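Consider the following input, taken from an annotated entry for PLC-like phosphodiesterase (Linnemannia hyalina).
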Amino acid sequence: MVRSSLSLTVGILLASSSAWVQYTDAQQQCNGYTELCSRTYDKVSYATAHNAYAFNPPNGLDTNQVNNIPTQLKDGIRAFMLDAYATPSGNPNEIELCHINCALLDGGALSATLALFKTFMDANPNEVITILWENAANLKPAQFQAVYAAAGLSPYLYAQATGATIWPTLAQMIASKKRLVNFIDSGADATVPWLMAEYDFIFETPYSIPKGTAYPCTIDRPKDQRKPMYVLNHFIQGATNAQGSTTSDPQPDVADQTNGPDLVSHINSCQTIFKQIPSFVAVDFYQKGSLTETVAKVNKVTWNGIAATTSGNNVQKTN
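Applying the prediction step yields:
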């Protein structure tokens, strides 16, 4: 009996050890890097796609990206700026992804885009994803909640407790499966705790940067208020005159320079001024330049070598 009990105890210990090895192996990389697992969410820099949904029409005046969202995810983009509008049909149970207005650029229904995020998150359990919302139409949190729930994303939604200043590590978020973080620039309330008020946690550098001007390292939103994290807005705009009016347009032709040497210089300047790393490095046309490699350097990890897809992928499927 003693020997039987001893064998049983050893077997349990071995089984537990094996389970622990499997667990630690599963947590070995967080957002592509072992070193990031032990860091709290707010101490990591994330490659960010500005207006991630605005990749159609190809080479349109108001498109900010070339690749669709599944390709962005595959290429290492881990934070996504999205703009929320009411649907052209007035459907209260849906949200439309538009730029300035839906007649100018309509990125389609949010439900379709969230389905793509769910597919990726289901297949990639060690990834923490962030969505930064511009609530352009002043939609209610309950409307976001309904669309997210219908997309099956509710189990992934992370909510930082009110007043909490310490964030979990990426490994803790991954282990809890609460690894989809959402911030919104206006309209947040306590009824939907996971849709967090961006400016309670984050400040932003100026987003309107005319082509040929210096990249600023000042606090634009909320005005002159430091926060624990910040968005480095790094995308430039040119002026186009058409029929007597002037519009500001993205600049894909110079994106190699913008997202290459200029990005490195902008990050270095802002880190010196703010004494903290940028949490979200937001660019247009991320496939040009060296965004993910530069963000790896900010995180002080060796870049994993995953190169951006450069051919362009504008077909977005939901299945």
